[in-house]
Amino acid sequence: MNRKFFTFLWPVIWALGVSLSSGAVFAADEAPDAFIKRISSETLDAVRSDKSIKGGDINKIMQLVDSKLMQHVNFRRMTALATGPGWRKATPEQQDRLQAEFKLLLIRTYSGALSQISDQTIEMKPLRGATDDKNLVVQTEVRGKGEPIQLDYRLEKTPGEGAGWKIFDLNVLGIWLVENYRSQFSKEINAGGVDGLIKSLSDRNKSNAKKS
User: Were both Cys, which of 28, 49, 173, 189 would link to 86 (CB 3.0–4.6 Å)?
Assistant: First the structure.
């Protein structure tokens, strides 16, 4: 895939956890574009000031994802969409393994993109659709050296405790994260079933661990 796809993938996802570190509390009815603008700006500032994160410290990134990130991302839905029809056939134990291995794959594969953050800024695009839509896309553009980079977020509005916007897909340079992985995962499932996909993800994670 185009390397630029991942230049801003993890830094921007990482912002979802950063927003809580300041202790600020935001209303559950925060507008979706305001939500994205806030976390994007905080990301760029935080990454620039954290040498270990910017340097790709896997352990620190893992701690951050587990303690801060996951409450802002519907990762179960993201994994289910990426897995496709095979998700419904998977047992609860297999679904848990898929989520764990998929999360680790994303972290280990794309944490290196953090080192490329420098003088980028985020430009928000006009919001399409009503802000009370349960599912919508917030479009942004990352500006810095070179051509602007398209970065869009697919959000859902969650009710009840912890109500607010959650991300379940990302679009970088016209490529949706879920769609990209769905094609890969479909081949793995067709070849070896859900267990085959889990093994493939596990093997890739072990290989990436040796390289880090």
Answer: 189
